[in-house]
């Protein structure tokens, strides 16, 4: 993802968000509370219209056409009850809903998303803003887990382990301020070593070069090793607090690992520290999305651990967004990936980067506008 946010920071925010009265509670406690209140964070057994209530539609301010399109998207993206996730960023989305976070949560719920990877902006975390708390609380009522993502570049986290600690402390402070239903479920990290195109630092003089730096022990391998070390540190802290850690990965890691050109970067290695992985398959052809993602699913060896993410981001210049190809194509891609993915026990579901892209498509009156 071009918008790179390391989740470690926000991760701890999720696990320590206990109020003084709730010290020691974990995310499982939160889930139990939701169940007791009539909500659940488990995926729907099958997507059906009983999931969407009139109250949800009203809160989302959805038109009749949007209600119909949301049902079609849920059917395509939640095949066999699989969950799906959505990336939400401050500048493109959250800022626009700062005065109506409940509407944003309702819209996300209508589309059937069960996981939100949220970058709300550092100041909102530090200040435990009302908009942030209201948004997470609203998501909780719909059984949606919200995972925090950070605001620093991958290079900052890889070059300086102290930066991870700094972000973690910020999360802990937030957790101590918020109440029961306002907690993050964990963090969804986005450390992308393949974006390090200049020497990382004096201590770590590595540069990613897809043409020249593959090979065991070479720079690409060293950057992946460093990434795994950062995730191990984060995972240890999060898991001890009953929280989850996820990471966004490039599909080529597993492909080059299988070819013997990497010692580090396999899906299995990432899953030693992470509860789940999001495969960034930012391609516009559904067959290509699948063929590049399948090696990671084959290697995972862990049930419900790897999702496949496509890009719907607006104004994308790299040619990796499927947004311009239209709504019908999006449904075809989602259904195709789910049909293929469910053959693997490791398949976790279908994810989307980002919400502003799919929201625009959802509001279109025609297929492409």
Could you characterize what this model shows?
The protein is α/β, with parallel strands linked by helices. The protein has helices spanning 8-15, 27-36, 54-60, 64-77, 101-110, 122-126, 130-141, 154-159, 161-177, 219-240, 252-258, 267-270, 286-300, 327-341, 355-363; strands spanning 83-89, 115-119, 145-148, 186-189, 244-250, 276-280, 306-311, 347-353. It has an eight-stranded parallel beta barrel with strand order 1-2-3-4-5-6-7-8, surrounded by seven helices.
Count of DSSP E strands?
8
Shape type: globular
**Class of secondary structure makeup:** alpha/beta
Low-confidence stretches: 2-49
Radius of gyration: 19 Å
Strand content: 5-15%
What's this entry about, in short?
With 369 residues, this protein is of the alpha/beta class. An 8-stranded parallel β-barrel has the order 1-2-3-4-5-6-7-8, surrounded by 7 helices. 44% of the residues lie in helices and 12% in strands.
Give the SSE map.
Layout: H1 8-15, H2 27-36, H3 54-60, H4 64-77, E1 83-89, H5 101-110, E2 115-119, H6 122-126, H7 130-141, E3 145-148, H8 154-159, H9 161-177, E4 186-189, H10 219-240, E5 244-250, H11 252-258, H12 267-270, E6 276-280, H13 286-300, E7 306-311, H14 327-341, E8 347-353, H15 355-363
Parallel strand pairs: 1-2, 1-8, 2-3, 3-4, 4-5, 5-6, 6-7, 7-8
Helix pairs in contact: 1-9, 1-10, 3-5, 4-14, 5-7, 11-13, 13-14
């Amino acid at each position: 993802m071009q918008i790179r946010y390391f989740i470690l920071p926000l991760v701890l925010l999720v696990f320590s968000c206990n109020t003084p009265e709730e010290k020691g509670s974990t995310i499982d406690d939160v889930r139990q509370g939701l169940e007791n209140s009539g909500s659940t964070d488990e995926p729907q057994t099958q997507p059906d219209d009983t999931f969407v209530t009139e109250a949800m539609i009203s809160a989302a301010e959805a038109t009749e056409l949007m209600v119909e399109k949301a049902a079609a998207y849920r059917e395509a993206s939640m095949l066999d009850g699989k969950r799906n996730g959505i990336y939400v960023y401050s500048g493109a989305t959250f800022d626009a809903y700062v005065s109506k976070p409940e509407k944003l949560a309702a819209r996300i719920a209508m589309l059937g998303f069960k996981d939100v990877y949220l970058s709300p902006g550092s100041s909102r975390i530090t200040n435990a803003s009302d908009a942030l708390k209201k948004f997470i609380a609203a998501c909780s009522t719909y059984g949606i887990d919200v995972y925090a993502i950070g605001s620093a570049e991958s290079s900052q986290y890889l070059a300086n382990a102290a930066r991870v600690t700094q972000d973690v402390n910020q999360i802990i402070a937030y957790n101590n301020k918020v109440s029961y239903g306002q907690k993050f479920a964990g963090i969804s990290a986005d450390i992308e070593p393949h974006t390090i195109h200049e020497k990382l630092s004096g201590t770590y003089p590595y540069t990613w070069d897809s043409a020249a730096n593959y090979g065991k022990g070479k720079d690409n391998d060293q950057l992946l090793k460093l990434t795994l070390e950062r995730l191990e540190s984060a995972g240890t802290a999060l898991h001890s607090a009953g929280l989850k850690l996820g990471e966004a990965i490039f599909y080529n890691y597993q492909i080059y690992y299988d070819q013997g050109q990497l010692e580090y970067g396999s899906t299995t290695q990432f899953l030693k520290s992470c509860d789940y992985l999001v495969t960034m398959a930012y391609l516009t052809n559904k067959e290509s999305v699948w063929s590049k993602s399948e090696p990671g699913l084959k290697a995972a060896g862990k049930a419900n651990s790897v999702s496949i993410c496509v890009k719907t981001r607006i104004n994308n210049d790299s040619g990796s967004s499927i947004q311009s190809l239209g709504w019908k194509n999006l449904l075809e891609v989602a259904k195709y990936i789910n049909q293929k993915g469910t053959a693997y026990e490791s398949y976790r579901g279908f994810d989307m980067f980002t919400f502003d892209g799919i929201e625009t498509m959802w509001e279109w009156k025609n297929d492409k506008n």
